[in-house]
Design brief:
alpha-L-rhamnosidase, 5 domains, seven-stranded antiparallel sheet, alpha+beta, disordered N terminus, 910 residues, Jelly Rolls, Immunoglobulin-like, single chain, signal
């Protein structure tokens, strides 16, 4: 009898285990689209979560989200901050906080559970946390901006002067010194929590008790400093010790101050380097203490003797002061920190991911190119800095020069007008020394080092390099997708483009990592979808929108660059293809992430810009701007690209107005868009020839993709585009970085992927394959391989790789990938492809293989979403789903359409 009871108990426990396993579960829980974020502003506080289930076709039917003031409380079920109770809803993204006011500089703990289609509850998610930022100036507890030396307002040069000032200009100033600042303090009781809120302009590196705080590079992010200054939040509880402690901070210039030594894109200064900091210490007895930046800090020049974001950096290791950032260091020779001019920018928490060093490259080849000069080839162009290991005598100096290209003699070639950018390191003569720049970077494939022994055996007394790596810096946004296929060239194009994307994802999207480092809006306007398929840029685009809001002119213009450090002229300050980013970024965040709050926040900025465009239009046409920048042959009229983007943005604005309940505005913008479309067709369309303007690839494709072609002519215009590509252009690419995206989309979205395959699958004419053939390792600025060797603007092909070949997209009226469109394109010689994309609801994965009479497609559809799958099939084809024949489907244009819920499916067509 006893044995029977044990057997029954085991059976019960096993069945219970299967029941738990079969339930839906929360596998990721995010706050502000990040895991356990810090510096959260309650006005931006929202939650989302991802779910998994072993069942198919599972939707969320309800959720419960709870928040507590401590981890102990949330574990004990004491939800003393917020409790939604059970909310009947399938909403699992963008769930905004609606509870009582939260305190600043506090950590809160939360979790969520969900109910599935059968109304069965999941277990609670793992406990998550978020830390609020500082909400008001008073919350800074009288922390002051401090520095080593102040600069009077009369020294400001804002906006910057484009390039260098003329010799003798009285405004010329010297490179601002990079200071060290320190503060000792004592913790007399047991510490429960220690939060540091800090900003340093232009950039800072902070440490506590000699240990680095965080690992960000060039923090905080680049902004319009007169409008917005970002601060960072760190939990440093584990770095404090009982008794004496010390904070140390090193400051650099960044975009805050750029003198004209060496290469510059613009010369100017907001002021000298400065710091503001607040350390909030909460003790176990419940009391708090605040350590603030003030005159009690100490300051002195650092060993960095020169640094600019454009020109490079110099370091003299002999000036190091050992232990300067630790307690008990003697700082008697240091000056008292000075209270400096307070910047006018509002302090806001940095909501984006930091810039980090996320790759380390080793040299593939080393070449002696002259006396005491060696060039290292790292085999890959990337945004980065050199890190050097060296031995030598005190006072010996190395010159380190990064570059993208080489001269014929093997020395480095800083082409494209960016010379000189260099680093120098002066040794302290203390064994092996390791150094890397802190406040500058470059586009680097090659590194030239001068003033060194060329090999170990050399009898010279010069320094010996014992190690050299390149550290690649980029925005730490998580990878959002992957792609691979059976075509080797396409895989290399994917890698080529990926290196350009991640090299230009910094705290904003740069034009390139060497000549510009500016945030030209075109890059984000043309490439946002391609970028988003590879990296999760939600937080980045929220930051970019803030920069545009800050840069907007009084007349409503949003300039071509934001922050607008340099005020350019003509189309370089006002080009609609660039400026309409101000409207289309918010539309993107709604379409791809379901964010309506950003529409509310940016609505005034967007309508002011729309009014500006309307004031510049002539008979509803915009006939100015940069046009199809860097196209081949300059064959597209400027009015085509400018007006097309005008129509596209006004159409999007009308829909956003409707979305937030502004129906009158929606109607006005809808009517304006209709007028633009009519004027566009009257001006540019030849109905007899079925041509737009010159019939260029850009003119035809943009008209098709942006909905400017009347339905009566759509098929004719498409056929004309394809015929022109094949017969006149000989399958050669002519579109530039404005039109190329729409050429690609016009072909793969309108049943002509084979034409696109033919154009892409070659290396004999300017294009992707041509760049690879010429030795490019990152996407180049121009189709013929000239100018910047690392520029992302032409990387639109990734949209086809993901949406076309891999077949991962969303249906037209879907938001945030709630309803997927899985439509693979097995074109050309492709025999297999696979892709993945991390949507707001979770990972979407596809993989297909093609044989003579069989097509197999495996898909993973996230919980809480549905999908329409388009399989290549004909009437009479046999279709199987997970091995069972499917009879409930319909055929449309050689495609079988299947409606599927969440789950993993293997679909086969025979």
């Amino acid at each position: 009898m006893k044995g029977r009871k044990i057997t029954l108990l085991v059976v019960f426990l096993l069945s219970l285990g299967h029941t738990v396993k079969a339930q839906m579960r929360v596998v990721a829980a995010l706050c502000g689209n990040r895991a356990n974020p810090v510096g959260i502003n309650p006005s931006d506080l929202f939650f989302s979560w991802e779910m998994q289930s072993p069942k198919q076709a599972v939707m969320q039917s309800a959720y419960q989200l709870v928040i507590a003031s401590s981890k102990a409380n949330v574990t004990a079920g004491k939800f003393d901050v917020f409790n939604t109770d059970v909310v009947k809803s399938n909403r699992s993204i963008q769930v905004h906080y609606s509870g009582k006011a939260l305190q600043s500089a506090q950590t809160y703990f939360w979790k969520v559970r969900v109910w599935d289609t059968d109304k069965k509850s999941s277990a609670w998610s793992a406990t998550q946390q978020f830390t609020t930022g500082i909400f008001t100036p008073a919350d800074w507890k009288n922390a002051r901006w401090i520095g080593y030396e102040d600069m009077p307002d009369s020294g400001r040069i804002v906006p910057f002067v484009h390039l260098k000032m003329k010799a003798g200009d009285p405004q010329i100033f010297k490179n601002a010194r990079s200071p060290l600042l320190r503060k000792e303090f004592t913790t007399a009781r047991n510490v429960a929590k220690a939060l540091l809120f800090i900003s340093g302009l232009g950039h800072y590196e902070a440490s506590i008790n000699g240990r680095r705080i965080g690992n960000a590079f060039l923090a905080p992010g680049w902004t319009s400093y007169d409008k917005t200054i970002l601060y960072n939040t760190y939990d440093i509880t584990g770095q404090l010790r009982p008794g004496s402690n010390a904070i140390g901070v090193m400051l650099g210039n960044g975009f805050y101050s750029i003198s004209q030594e060496r290469y510059v894109k613009g010369t100017g200064t907001f002021g000298n380097p400065k710091l503001i900091a607040l350390l909030k210490i909460t003790y176990t007895d419940g009391s708090t203490e605040h350590i603030i930046s003030d005159k009690s800090w100490k300051a002195t020049p650092s060993p960095i003797t020169f640094n600019t974001i454009y020109g490079g950096e110099d370091y003299d290791a002999r000036l190091e002061q050992k232990g300067w950032n630790k307690a008990a260091f003697s700082d008697k020779t240091w000056n008292d920190a000075v209270l400096v001019t307070t910047p006018t920018g509002k302090l806001l928490p940095e909501i984006d991911y930091p810039v980090l060093f996320l790759d380390s490259l080793s040299a593939k080849k080393t070449t002696v190119v002259g006396q005491n000069t060696v060039v290292y080839d790292f085999g890959q162009n990337c945004s980065g800095i050199p890190r050097i290991n060296v031995t030598g005598k005190a006072g010996q100096t190395l010159k380190i020069t990064p570059a993208e290209l080489l001269h014929a003699d093997g020395t480095v070639n800083q082409a494209d007008g960016v010379t000189p950018h260099s680093y120098s390191y002066t040794l302290k003569g203390d064994g092996e020394e390791i150094w890397q720049p802190r406040f500058s970077y470059f586009a680097v494939r090659y590194v030239q080092i001068e003033g060194v022994r060329v090999n170990k055996e050399e009898s010279s007394q010069l320094p010996l390099v014992t190690g050299l790596t390149v550290l690649h810096n980029r925005n730490a946004a998580p990878r959002n997708g992957t792609f691979a296929c059976s075509n080797g060239l396409f895989n290399r194009i994917y890698t080529l483009t990926d290196w350009a994307i991640k090299s230009n994802l910094q705290s904003y999207i740069t034009d390139n990592p060497q000549r510009e480092k500016l945030s030209w809006q075109g890059e984000q306007n043309f490439m946002r979808t391609a970028i988003n398929y590879t990296y999760n840029v939600y937080n980045l685009y929220r930051s970019l929108i803030q920069n545009m809001t800050d840069a907007q002119h009084e007349n409503g213009l949003v300039p071509d660059i934001a922050p607008e450090y340099v005020k350019f002229e003509g189309p370089f300050v006002d080009s609609p293809e660039w400026g309409t980013t101000a409207i289309l970024d918010s539309w993107f965040l709604y379409q791809f992430y379901g964010d309506t709050s950003v529409v509310h926040k940016t609505y005034r900025m967007m309508t002011r810009y729309a009014d500006f465009l309307e004031s510049r239009a002539v008979d509803n046409l915009l006939l100015y701007g940069l046009g199809d920048w860097l196209d081949i042959g300059k064959v597209t009229p400027v009015g085509i690209t400018a007006t097309a983007y005008y129509y596209h943005s006004i159409t999007a604005l009308s829909r956003m107005a409707e979305l937030i309940g502004k129906s009158e505005d929606a109607a006005r913008y809808r009517n304006l868009a209709a007028g633009i479309k009519t004027a566009f067709n009257k001006k540019f369309f030849n109905p007899d020839k079925k041509l737009y303007a010159t019939g260029s690839q850009t003119a035809m494709a943009m008209s098709l993709n942006m909905g400017l072609v009347e339905e009566t002519y759509r098929k004719d215009v498409l056929n004309k585009l394809v015929a022109t590509i094949q017969a006149i252009d000989a399958n050669r690419l002519t579109a530039g970085d404005v039109g190329n995206r729409y050429l690609i989309k016009a072909l793969y979205e309108n049943s002509n992927p084979e034409t696109l395959f033919t154009m892409t699958n070659r290396d004999d004419v300017p294009g992707y394959g041509y760049l690879l053939k010429k030795g490019a390792t990152a996407l180049v600025e121009t189709w013929d391989g000239k100018s910047s060797q690392n520029q992302l603007a032409m990387g639109h092909i990734l949209e086809w790789f993901y949406e076309g070949i891999a077949g991962i997209a969303q249906e037209e009226n879907s938001v945030a990938f709630k309803h997927l469109k899985l439509r693979p394109q097995p074109v050309g010689d492709l025999t297999w492809a696979r892709g993945s994309f991390h949507s707001p609801y979770g990972w979407i994965k596809t993989s297909w293989t093609k044989a003579a009479s069989r097509f197999s497609y495996q898909v993973d559809i996230p919980v809480n979403t549905t999908a329409t799958v388009y399989l290549p099939a004909k009437t009479g084809s046999k279709i199987y789903k997970n091995g069972k024949i499917v009879r409930d489907y319909k055929i449309e244009a050689d495609r079988a359409l299947l409606e599927l819920g969440s789950g993993t499916y293997v679909l086969t067509v025979e």
